[in-house]
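SEQUENCE-TO-STRUCTURE ENTRY
===========================

Backbone structure tokens: a row of integers, each naming the local backbone shape at its residue.

Task: work out the structure tokens from the sequence, keeping to the layout shown below.
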Amino acid sequence: MGEEVNFGGASPPNNRGHRLATVAGGTSRRRRRSKRQMATQMLLRHATVISMTGSDPSTADVLVEDGTITRVAAEIRAPGDARVVELEGKYLLPGLIDAHCHITISGGLIADELSLDPRTRILRAAHNAAMTLRAGITTIRDTCGLDDSDILLRDAIHAGILTGPRIIACGRMITMTGGHGWFYGQEVDGADAVRRAVRERVKARADWVKFMASGGFGEEGEQPAASQLDLDELTAGVREARKAGRRTCAHAHGAASIKHALQAGIDTIEHASFLDQEAIDLLRNRGAFIVPTFSIYHKMREAGPGLHLLPYLVELVNRSWDAKVASFIEAYRAGIPIAAGSDNGSPVAPHPDIATELELFVGFGLSPYEALRTATTNAARLLDLGDTIGTIEPGKRADMVALSQDPLRDIAAVRMVSTVVQNGRCYEPGMTGAAQDASSVAV
């Protein structure tokens, strides 16, 4: 757990609070490394490697040194002190990426989540993080953390104190007074107030800044297509974020709100439910990503009634579903870049699960390979980590997941996790604490 992470465009290594956390954790990490004499080399043998580089799957070995992939080839001779992991019969993919989730919320109804003691919430968040890594999800973008606790969790995982995925944290989202998610976010009105809120997000050491550009599916009477933060407010927020080197995302369902967000310079559109042709053209011209998060709405439809979700919201999702699907298919055909996001943590969507999103994509017409791209190479590009993660090739960080069945034949195989490697450390599904240190293990 002690290897250094290259955050690419993310901010933690440049922030004073993160430096303090790293220094504080550095001594304990060195002690652990000294006591355990951690091997710096690991060889993954005889896997069917689906590298996501565009090459055909093939049986190969993967050599990892100091947390970095250094070689991918057949029959690599194991260095004398390397740990060997036998993966014959397994399918090895890059670690999966969830580009939109809420690790500090656990899938309960909003009132139930808010009623919890904040200390309980952070303990649940730590459990969510460990479960997420066990599911083969090695990186997440948390798009709204209660009380900025996603930032604290990010730092604890980075320092090796807790086990979990690499976290790109937004902290609290920025919404208008009474806007979507007001109970979780920071309420502001007017361009000056938005600027101040962004500065507070930067002060809190958030990696990204999230804005709420439209309504959603959260409360009785909400209208997801209605615009909320205005163009001038979004523009002021984006400019302030860029001054601090932060990228931005916007919750936006309706076409007008999507266009406002893109005109303001937002980097990624979350949900993107009701696109029109003008919005698709803007997305294409800007090269902006969409993160559709179908799985949360699927679960609201299927499980919501049995879990006491408001009937208004269930009916609203049912009325909106076909239009959202049709909009997505148009964007896909137009070549708009798509990244997978689960919206896990929202009501009726507990952690961990990226598989449902990929299964829905395949159901809408994507090939299994295309679906996997949304949770690997595409999501890495969205996070500005394309040079660091997202493929299995020399020079990339060693984030990988081994599956028991072939996901190119059946995308549901992403549920069948055998082994997880994150940042060069190897985990099995039953493990929630430290990675294994044995010199050789068969899985």
